[in-house]
Records
---
Amino acid sequence: MALLEVNNLEVCFGLRKGEVKALRNIDFKIERGERIGIVGESGAGKSVLGFSIINLISQPGYVSQGEVMFEGQNLAKMNHQQLRSIRGNRISMIFQDPMMTLNPVLTIGDQMVECLMEHRTISKQDARNIAVQKLQQVYIPSPETRLDQYPHELSGGMRQRVVIAIGLLMDPDIIIADEPTTALDVTIQAEIMELMLELCERNNVALILITHDLGVVSQVTQRTFVMYAGRIIEQGPTKEIINDAQHPYTQGLINALPQMGVRGKRLHQIRGAMPSLQSVPVGCAFRERCDYAIENCSHNVPDFTESGGCKVACHMVAELKREEQAVKLEIKGGAQ
């Protein structure tokens, strides 16, 4: 049994103009110690998916369909009290802005000790000792001194390390990291991601990394899910997706990376913009931005097709696979 299994998950937001589906037909599994990446443009539904896993969707949002199974328990059906034993304990979440996680009027030590004593029956001194150990794990110098400091006294990179240490406090089985390096400079970004990779490998912790940066995904994750307009449109081993992307949208994301550009020329960009979730077009949501759209794209939502070691939701790819199969059968028939 997988550590976490998401089945046919749908999330809706009730607005005055009617319901809006933010997530549609999300299916995936993650094993213990596995690292997956969820990528896509802003508005694709990445963060909503992260919040949905631990049932943190606020009204007017709600899980309208599907299940999130964690070791046989459906998190989507749990009440607030039941979820308190899971959130921050078995499943931790790291947010993109550390100041949204850290309380500015409490010291780092107070916040870490409070978290430990909420979930474990230990003394305050034992909790403080564990907090020091976790700060040491994330390579924060003079951890005993840092415990008595307030968040504003630390640099951005140091605050993010503290947030990661808090995420590791309860020795979780899964860490959900939502754009954990967005507010940091490039050098600190690399350090933080190397740190997270090291900690996950050392402690056999599963990681769900939510990001728009394919470069980060390629360095840290083993499998990748590409999202567009609330759906997963391509999934597979990260190396396969980076080296041989099958979906036109994923190809566009990779071609838009600065290192893929030609010196002196404009960077590649995908034309147009992602549709509003209130007006997702019929058929393939990406068709109006796609250079390879065919007639079927205007009428039907594409199913997954296996191609190049990945699963791709694209009518064009499915058509090419059918043509390839037909040619193989023709050659085989001729040989006989």
---
Amino acid sequence: MKKTNYLKELSLSTAVVKRGLANKKADVEKIQSWLCLQERQHRGIGTMTGIDGDYGTATEVAVKNYQKFLGLPADGIVTASLFTKLTSNLKNSFEGAAIKANLRDTISEVAHNHLKGFPFELVIKQQTNCGPWVRSYMGGNEGSDWLWCMGFVQAVLDQATSLHGRNFTEMMPISYSCDTVGTHGIQKNVLIRNERIRINPALAKKGDVLLVRKSQNDWIHTAIIVDVVGDTFITIEGNTNNDGSSNGDGVYKRVRNFRKSYLDVFSLNNWLV
């Protein structure tokens, strides 16, 4: 795998972090981020707190609440073992998918496995597109300017192709830009335009990459196609929301009508021959 930045999110620089120690700010921010993400997944457990790098009383209480949620002694101390529990969804998403009989099915499996991990972004220091999931998808980058939909798609492709002993960069360049991938698709004659798909929906297949077109050579969002049903693509996509935004807050499974929107498809067919 080329996208291994997620590994930096799975560990702390010290064995123990607690109130009263000279903790590293980066370690505390990681812990606070994961506490907030736990509350997003398990509403009401009481772990949402500020992300400021200060292990004060609020963070200590949030840690104790997480320990109570797990049925552990609530001492407010983050050990390596507890941090492993905090970050288990990320590890499982990047390492837990099983290889399938063919690459298209493996891509779908990997995308679904990420979906199960509840990837969300966080707002940190008034910046959207932040947090451990975003950094994992975006090579350590985060912040309002770092729209992460393509980072998510290429992380899925990276994992899936690696399971089959292949390299996704043979298919497309590493990029966080939908325009770069769309232009590459045109150059390699693998970008199927929406107008052709409306005539023959069978051209699009599971595992292909959807590109939401704004204008002829301008794409603003991307997703993994996991099924084609009637006039719709079933997708798994990052940095979106219920409105289908290209700057949402998480990874979701969506239904998109290709007869009502300009949805181009980066096809894997030539690469799989």
---
Amino acid sequence: MDEVEVVVAHSERATLRVGDVFLKVDADQARVDVEVRAMALAPVPTPEILWRRPPVLAIAALRGTTLGRLGGPATGSTAAWAAAGAALRKLHDAPLPPWPGRAGRSVAALTAELDDECGSLVRDGILPADLVTRNRQVAEAALRPWTPAFTHGDLQIAHLFVDGDEVTGIIDWSEAGQGDAFYDLATFTLGHEDHLDDLLAGYGADVDLDVIHAWWSLRSLLAVRWLVEHGFDAFAPGCEVDVLRSRM
């Protein structure tokens, strides 16, 4: 019998792997509903859904490997990164899904959330004030009107698979919906700034680099405390705190 591998587990959800099957356990069925609907609408390769019996969603493993992980080395050829960019452009150009996503919070709501989080990071002694202040300044460029796009909403580098130079699939769509396309681009290249040009070569659209840089800071500021509280190491080399330090 295949061993059971715990891919990720925290208080909100868990993902297990048994052979070529991933079992996603999530008590929030509305979040799973979004994932299933988004995969059905997305014009890019997604995993096959094998079955769903709440609170479990079973999906098939994808062919290939990821282009890396946050805090680890990036892999893949320049062409593979360009292929990832082309897949993101296809997604962002697709008809909008009929619901807002994580990347679609209003500027006012996002600003309020960011200000509250920055205050907590300093007040609780998680990060030094100068680091938070500088990155809050950088993040300002992301707080602007944006044209809605079909966004993945949590497009970490580990969520896109390639086989050679071909994108074989994108996983974890529970945060998908209408949002800022630059958020996806920034999330995918977080901690791997040296591959941004390769990604954009395939994306093929005008991109405001200041906004990408701003989303690196903004996403990291919002993530650090949650990661610490849920047992993840945001201070590991190459991860969120290093991303914030690079803005100094």
---
Amino acid sequence: MADAAPRLHALVEQLLGAPFPVRVRAWDGSQAGPPDAPALVVRNRRALRRLLFKPGELGLARAWVAGDLEIEGDLYTALDLLAGLIWERGEDARTLGQALRDPDFRSAVRGLLKLAGPPLPPAPPREEVRRTGHLHTRRTDRRAISHHYDVGNDFYALVLGPSMVYSCAYWESADSTLERAQHDKLELVCRKLDLRPGARLLDVGCGWGSLAVHAAREHGATVVGITLSQEQAAFARKRVADAGLTDKVEIRVQDYRDVDDGPFDAISSIGMAEHVGSAKYLEYAQVLCALLRPGGRLLNHQIARRPQRDESTYGVDSFIDAYVFPDGELAPVGTTVGQLERAGLEVRDVESIREHYALTLRRWVARLETDWDRAVQLSSPGRARVWRLYMAASALAFERNQIGVNQVLAVRTPESGDSGMPLRARTWN
């Protein structure tokens, strides 16, 4: 008898102590739950075993990446409905120990174990990264960057479009094109840094060379771009050569800690500081400060999280850490500003562009979904599923103000106190 979905739906509601807001379609073809809601498709019993033996976000991620779970219907709507049960339970939610003292909770777990059946769940999908050794050494940072960025330049071109900019765009309106918005972001960065002909720019985490090419071609800057990704560097060098800018742009595979040919007039760090780690952040800021000439500017473009009451639980068993940005860490914007100033920089402007990232991510997801078969061919089914979930969930997180993104403009102000900044702020707008 096809009754797995009704049993599963009832057991999940019993376990959560709350209504389950999506429909469930099980491996036996049965369905249960709100008929007009998106469906959580449980393709096999293995999905339940993954969830039961690793409860929470990581178990869900493993089942999703392996293809044991799927969403039927609008992904954003489903994630929005599930967010309150998965990611937003709150710090006052019951601990597992408290839950296990509840007879109804224990009964639901027994029912799910029976429904899941033997044996134990399989190993995690091959796309999952296992953390080993010390964090944020040169070796572990190279490995983490390679995991995320050496997926294949063709895959990223499919998702990002011709700009090959993998950071938040800057939108004039939601009706603008992705290409226009990314161009405007590159231009905004260059204007904030006051780049002029002959200015020397260090682009830390230069990606596929988009900012380096724009700064040299449109503003006459001389640029050193550094990345830890071999694939990015190869792509960026070809791009520089094709643009006829080899006399102005140098692309290196180099750790920011190993740059020794300063000073620079300006430094850009766009979407790179998230990889630095909280324990290394002050060192990162000090290194960049030392590489700037007196009066030089730093533009630090970085995703920020909201402060938590219990900071010790941040990132534990996280989908993002296991599948997307291994060893990456987000910090509250106040922490970032404090560390930059501790390093000797004067923070002159902080601009939140949170809504801009939500728009950017939705465009990337649309590109991925439109050419899904090609994306799978260029990477793997699991890798394409990782990117789809990560970008869609991130778009919702930006829209809900759970995370933000900020451009922090800082100056290495000389002892004279003359920062070189205009008297009226934001003359670049």
